Structure formats: C-alpha cells, structure tokens
Amino acid sequence: MSTYEEEHGIQQNSRDTRETRETSQEEQRRQVRSQLQELFQNFGSTGGEGNGHSDSTLLLQLLSQLLPESLQEEWLQEMDNGKNKGCPDTFAASLPRINKKVLKPSDNCSICYTNYLEDKYPLVVELPHCHHKFDLECLSVWLSRSTTCPLCRDDVMGHRVINEIDTTEAELEEDWGMYG
Amino acid sequence: MASLPKRIIKETEKLVSDPVPGITAEPHDDNLRYFQVTIEGPEQSPYEDGVFKLELFLPDDYPMEAPKVRFLTKIYHPNIDRLGRICLDVLKTNWSPALQIRTVLLSIQALLASPNPNDPLANDVAEDWIKNEEGAKAKAREWTKLYAKKKPE
C-alpha cells in the first residue's frame, strides 16, 4: 500500500530546491483541490448509492467537514450548471422568423414583455413544435441555458432531428421542381 | 446600478395596480429589485389567519434566473427550513422566464395550502409531518399564532 507521501509526491519534493518546491507545491495544491472536487461531486451525485455505500457516505461527510461551505456550494452549483446545458448556439438562429405582418399590436414577448411592434424591425422567432413566439434575442439567451420552451416546457431539442430532416426534404423537393 | 429592465418596471406596476388577493409585494425605495412581500395563510390550512413576511430579490440575470425568495416569518412547514429557505421546483430547476413574481408568490401560497413532506427541505419537520400529521399541523397552527399574527392596521 502506498503512503500518503508517495501518493501525493511529497517525497520527491523534499529533494528539490526551495524554488521548485514552492511551484510544485502550488501545482500539488491545485491537483489535490481538483481531486477533492471530483470526489465531492461524484459522491454528491451518486448519494452514496451502489457499492461501498457506507464508505462513500463517510467520505462525503469527512469531505464536507473539511471543505468550507462556500466552496461546496460553488461546486454543487457547477454540477447543476453542467446538467442544465442549453441548446447549441446555432439552434436559436435557425428557428423560423415571423413576418411582421402576422403580428398583432398586442402580441408581446413573454420574456421581456415588450410588444413586438414597438420595434420597427422586430426579430421574432417561433418554436417549431409548440409554435410559441419570442424575441430572437430573448429566446437565444434562454436557450443557451435550457432546452425547454419558456411557455410550455416542451423540450425543443427533442424535435430537432425530425425538423431538420423535414427542411432538407422540402428543399430537395423544391430543387427537383426547379431543375427536374 | 444598471438601469432597471422594462419587464421589472411593468411587473411592479401590475403588482401594485392589480394585486393578487392575499398577497402584497412592494419594492424597496433604495433597491427596486428587492421586494417586501406578505402572504396570507390560505383558508383551511394550518396557516389560516396568519400573515407571513417574505423577502424577494430579482438577481441581475432575472428573468433568465429565478427570483430569490425567503420567509422572514418563522413557519412550521416541511418545505421551508429554519432559515426561511423554500423548496419549490419553480424557484430552482423548473424556473422559466415566462414565469413572474406574481406566479412565484402564488406558487408559494399554494405550497402553504398543500405541504409536500415527501420532498422536504426541513427534514425534521417533514418526518414529524409524515409520522404524526395531526400533531404537526397543530404545531404549525401554534407557530402561526405565535409568529404570524395579523396586526391590526
């Protein structure tokens, strides 16, 4: 079984000059920190399920005692953010635009509450499946962090593939009509 | 401080001109993103006849991010911990920018009417609620009388 010193490469440092020791200690601290973060997030996410249940719980408890609460919260937040990744950047821009003529004066964006027609050149898009409309700008920000429609929580990415195939087919047919 | 988004101004105006029954929300004079809130306990709940004070803060990212809401009045409820923090899906993972201050406060009022001890934030309260619902409700009523008493205006 390896000792703590061996595992963390401390022995090696003791032979180094003072200067390199300092830099490698910093490097080590970073490594230990990221290892701790990994441990914490792993055990946090599994909740100590599966094998080694009691070990995990114990370790998590131990880790929680060692780590300042602010750091734990930061790491948990990071985990949450990782889970709620949004759509790719190109998705919102690829949504069908709504012609100004079909917009009524009372229609407004449910994200910024502004009537679309207050803008001389409104840039309004529609989600293809649920047909909910939003300002492109507002919706883009939301879809960078979520994949759901703000109004009905429909998973917009769930229909993406089908939608893409549809467009290609439509384009193909058009081409056939023109050149065939 | 950055200027207040139009949406926040509109929401605030609507809250004042067309208030939700049993709920008040007033922005702080010095910080228009900070609201002092009161919610009346729903009828036929252990919180009936109580008036609960809360604070609500709209973060810079609002409405992309949910408002931060906390009970200031002590309350015995399985989804509200002793610091007043609330366990409610729309305040966390189920937030949507189409929701607003009004809907959030209505959801909190609904949470008072129907506590959910199976998704607890205050573990000891939830345990009490599951094991001895009548006793827990009696305690909630007692706390309402003690801490959330309606003040004559």
From TrEMBL, chain A:
InterPro entries attached to this UniProt entry: Znf_RING, Znf_RING/FYVE/PHD
KW Protein transport (keyword) present: no
SUPFAM superfamilies named among the record's database cross-references: RING/U-box (SSF57850)
Predominant localisation class: membrane
RING-type domain sequence ranges: 109-153
Localisation per UniProt entry: Membrane
Basic and acidic residues compositional bias, start-end: 1-30
Region ranges (Disordered): 1-32
Assigned keywords, A-Z: Membrane, Metal-binding, Transferase, Transmembrane, Transmembrane helix, Ubl conjugation pathway, Zinc, Zinc-finger
Pathway: Protein modification; protein ubiquitination
Bilayer topology term: Single-pass membrane protein
Top-level taxon of the source organism: Eukaryota
Name of this chain's protein: SUVZ02G2775 protein
Species this chain originates from: Saccharomyces uvarum
UniProt lineage: Eukaryota, Fungi, Dikarya, Ascomycota, Saccharomycotina
Automatic annotation (TrEMBL), chain B:
EC identifiers of the protein: 2.3.2.23
Keyword ATP-binding: yes
Active-site residue list: C87
SUPFAM superfamilies recorded: UBC-like
Keyword Disulfide bond: no
InterPro entries per UniProt: UBC (IPR000608), UBQ-conjugating_AS (IPR023313), UBQ-conjugating_enzyme/RWD (IPR016135)
Domain of life: Eukaryota
Gene3D superfamilies listed in its UniProt record: Ubiquitin Conjugating Enzyme (3.10.110.10)
Residue ranges annotated for the UBC core domain, each copy included: 3-149
Keywords: ATP-binding, Nucleotide-binding, Transferase, Ubl conjugation pathway
Gene Ontology molecular functions: ATP binding; ubiquitin conjugating enzyme activity
PANTHER family documented for this protein: UBIQUITIN-CONJUGATING ENZYME E2
Family: Belongs to the ubiquitin-conjugating enzyme family.
Protein known as: E2 ubiquitin-conjugating enzyme
Source organism (scientific name): Saccharomyces uvarum
